[in-house]
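User: Continuing from earlier, I have the next pair ready.

Assistant: Great, send them over.

User: Here they are, in order.

Assistant: Folding the first of the pair now:
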Amino acid sequence: MSYTLLIVLTLFCSLVQSSVPPPTVAQDYQALVAAEKQFAHFTEQHTIKEGFLQFLSTDAVLYRRKFVNGKDFYAAQQSTATILSWSPQYAAISQSGSFGYTAGPYQIKRHQTAQPSSFGHYISLWAKVDTTWQVIFDLGCPYDEPNDFTAFAYPEQYDKKVATSLDTTRLKSDLMTVERRFSALSAKNSLQAAYQAFLAEQPLLFRTGQQPFDQPAKIKALVVSSQTSVVFTPQDGKVAVAGDLGYVFGYSRTGKLTPKPYLHIWKIDQQREWKLVLEVLTLAAQ
C-alpha cells in the first residue's frame, strides 16, 4: 500500500468516526417508559399483589403507613379484586441509562366493573438490575378530583450517555448533606426559603390532596405561599452511578403534628450543584 493511499484512508476513517453522533440515553429512556407501561398493564390484568411482586426489586421501598420493604409487604398480603390502573405522564433518566423515574395519574376501582373511586399520582423510581428494569421506590400522592390518562409525550432530544461509574457511597453522602441543608433552611426559616435556595428551574411538585404543580405560574404561586416551617428527616436514598440523579425519602413534620412521608428527587445542574426537581409532600392542612 502506498504512503499516499494510507494517508487518504486514515483521513477517511477519521471523518467517518467524527460524523458518528455520540450515543444517547434514548433507548434506555424508551425502555424505562415501556417497563412502567408493562408494569401497569400486567397489574391491571392480574392483581395488585402479583404486579408488585413481579416488578419490584428485592430491596424496593414502599410507604404503607410507614416505609417498608415492598416485596415483603406484598408477599404477606392476600390478593383482592381491587383494580389499580395508571399511566406514565412524566419521566426522566440518568445519563448512566440505568436509573430513572416516572410519574403519572392512577385510579382505583373496587372491582372490574366498578367506577373509579380513588385518584392520584404515583411516583416510581427505577433501576436497571443486570438488563431488567425494576422498581426500587414507589409513593402515591392521592387527591379527590377525577383524572385522565393521556398519551405519553416522548422528548425530541436526549442527553448523551455517560459510561463512567462513580463512587455512589460518596455521592450519596454528598446528597444527604444537601438534603440536611434543605431541611435546616426549611425548619429555621420556611419552606419558601428552602425552595428559593434549592429548587430547579422546572420542578415538579406534588401535594397530597391537589393536582400536580407542573406549570410555571402554579409553581411560582405555590412557592410564594409556602411560608410554613417544615422539618424533613431523611431515612435513606440512592444516587445514579453517573452521579447526576438521586433521591431521598423520609418523614416531614409541621409543628407537633404526626410526621408524613416525603420524597425528594435531585438532579445535578450545569453548575454541578444538586437541585430539587421533584417533591412529594403532605402538609398539616392536608
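And the other member of the pair:
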Amino acid sequence: MRPIHLAISLVVALSILAAGRIAADTIHLKSGGKIEGKIIEQDDQKVVISIGQLGTMTFRLSEIKKIEKDDRTGEIPPRKKPGDARESGTDSKAATTPATPRDAVIQFTQGMFQGDEKKLFAAVEATPEQKKYCRVSMELATAAVRFRDAFIEAYGSGAWEEFQDPSGARLNVVDLEEKIAHLRKIPIDERGDKATLEGAWKPGDKIEITRVKCGWRVASSSFCPAEEKIQSAIDMHMPVVKMLRKYKKAIGRPGIKPEDIDFELGREFIRVLKGKEILGPRRFDIDKH
C-alpha cells in the first residue's frame, strides 16, 4: 500500500457524518493522533483497525499510547462525481427552513456537500458548538471534492482510479446526485413532531428530524459528536482540510505527475497525523508551488 492510502484512510475517518453519533474503537497514538474505527485484529506486536468500507490500518504496539474499545462502529459515506461542490462559504440566496422531514435531510445534504453554509444551517437544529463542527465538516467535504475534481481535470479519470488504488483504502466523496435520488426514495417514519429516516448513508443508520416553528430540521444528534468531543474532532479535521487545499494547488503544474501528488500528499498526511517521516527524496517541493 502506497503512503497516500494509509493516510487517506485517516482523511475519511475524520470526515462528516462518520464520527458523529456512532461510537467506535479509538486508538490514541503516542504522536498525539487519534484513530477511530473497529479493531479487527490485535496481538502482542500490532493492532489492525478497520475504518468502515474504506479499508484497514495497522499500528505497532510501540506506536500506541492507549486503546479505548466500544461494541459499536460506524462506516463512511461513498464517493461523489466531479462538479458537485462549490467553494466553502459561497454566497447563496437566503435559505429557508425545510417544509418536510425529507426536505430537511435533502437540504442538509446539499448544503454540506455544496459548501452552502446558509442552506446547511437552515436545515439543522444545532447549538453554536455543533455549528462549528458542521462548518468544519463542510470545509472537509468540499476540500476533498475540489481536490478530486482538480485531479481528474488535470490528469483524467484513469489517473484518479490509479490514485484511488482499488486494492487499498479509497478517498470516497459522496456522489450528490445519486445521494439525493436515494434520499427521495427511502421511507420516512413521521410521528408527531419527530421523524426518522433509516439507511440514508449506510444500511441500518438513522437520521432524526425534528419539527420546529417554521418547518423541519435534522437533529444534530444524528451526526455530531458529544459536546465535549467537538473541539478535538475539529482539531483533527482542520489539518486534513489544510493539506488537501495545499496540495490541490500543485495539481497539473508543469513537471508534476499524478503519482507525485499521490506520494507527497501521502507523506504529508503520515507526518502530520502519525508523527512519522517517510525517508527519501521528494518528488517536488510543495512550498514552491
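Worth noting for the second one:
Confidence is low (pLDDT under 50) at residues 1-22, 72-92. The longest helix spans residues 128-155.
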